[in-house]
Amino acid sequence: MTAKRTEAVPVSSVGADGEQPDAKSDKKIIPNEKAQINLQARNCPEKSGQRLKVISMAELYDTAYPPRMPVVDGLLFAGTYLFVGAPKVGKSFLMGQLAYHVAMGIPLWGYPVHKGTVLYLALEDDYARLQRRLSRMFGVEGADNLFFATQAGTVNGGLGEELEEFVEKHPDARLVIIDTLQKVREAGGESCSYSSDYEIVARLKAFSDRHGICLLVVHHTRKLEAGDSFDMISGTNGLLGAADGAFIMQKRKRTDNTAVLDVVGRDQPDQELTIEFDREHLVWNFRRAETELWKQPPDGVLEMVAGLLDAETREWSGSPSELLQRLPQLNIPPNVLTRRLNVGAEQLYADYGIRYESGRTHSGRTIRLALIQAEA
Known about the structure:
Helices cover 27% and strands 23% of the residues. By secondary structure, it is α/β, with parallel strands linked by helices. It has 2 domains: 75-289, 3-Layer(aba) Sandwich (Rossmann fold); 296-375, Arc Repressor Mutant, subunit A (Orthogonal Bundle), CATH 1.10.10. The strands form 3 sheets. The chain has a 9-stranded mixed beta sheet. A 3-stranded antiparallel beta sheet has the order 12-14-13. Strands 1-2 form a two-stranded antiparallel ribbon. Helix 3 packs across helix 4 (127-138). It is globular.
């Protein structure tokens, strides 16, 4: 993520070594992993006489897409998520807890957290209440990279510009919390339509994707019970349809100290967590997980590539053919290797802490691998 609203500079991607680019098959790369943009929409070559921009399967495999950055490993990623629960169930306490943990880089319930600047739009609170609540939760040690606001514009009335200005001033921003959705949406006759619900979340998602950060939007459940907990989200299915995922927080009885947190999303497996509220310190503690966190099986090619880097050799760059020379046990063509790395870039980052970039210079195709565990 950069301090200015700029497009990452695309460079040509991968294939067989030494192959010369042409206008029809030139591939695009986004080397900055935080520049989360829709490459299918932006970078596909427009065919003559066609208004629909398309990409072939080969072009898809020959493009290195940036990995979606985790905020909390296995739980929360870059993108736009809904956090939904009944009024006064304890959502804001958990939002304050999450904001503090991300700002400080402290693990949450055993999940590793990636440190970054946080903006918490506490639009149903005031600063005095925030001061009292946070001091009970964390004492009086402050985080210089955790910011609050109790007023903000609406989605159609200046919120986008306000968020853009904040990100420009804080290029390391990782998490923005909007508490609540109702405070930033426009009232009107269309407010409960599917298209209106979808559009408001889609506009927020465009911001989070553009900057590669997480935008967590607090919302309420409907009063009526439902067989599927995600059907309890107040409004239409357009809200969840446009979001990258959702968290549903429920208690069996309002007086209970325990709550169930259902998690669903595009970038993480479905989970069900049981958490318990500490009324003295106003924080939620982890009790158990009803489902095991699924982990993608190891990839033999990625394991061998990752083995080239260690604490002494933190970076490697060269052509695909040169990389294969370092891995004689791999009997595959150079363009197949680069496609495997393109597809596995996110797993390479998540499992081994290695950033993968691919491009083309005047001398041919290039690959760069960098160990970035210390940067996370």
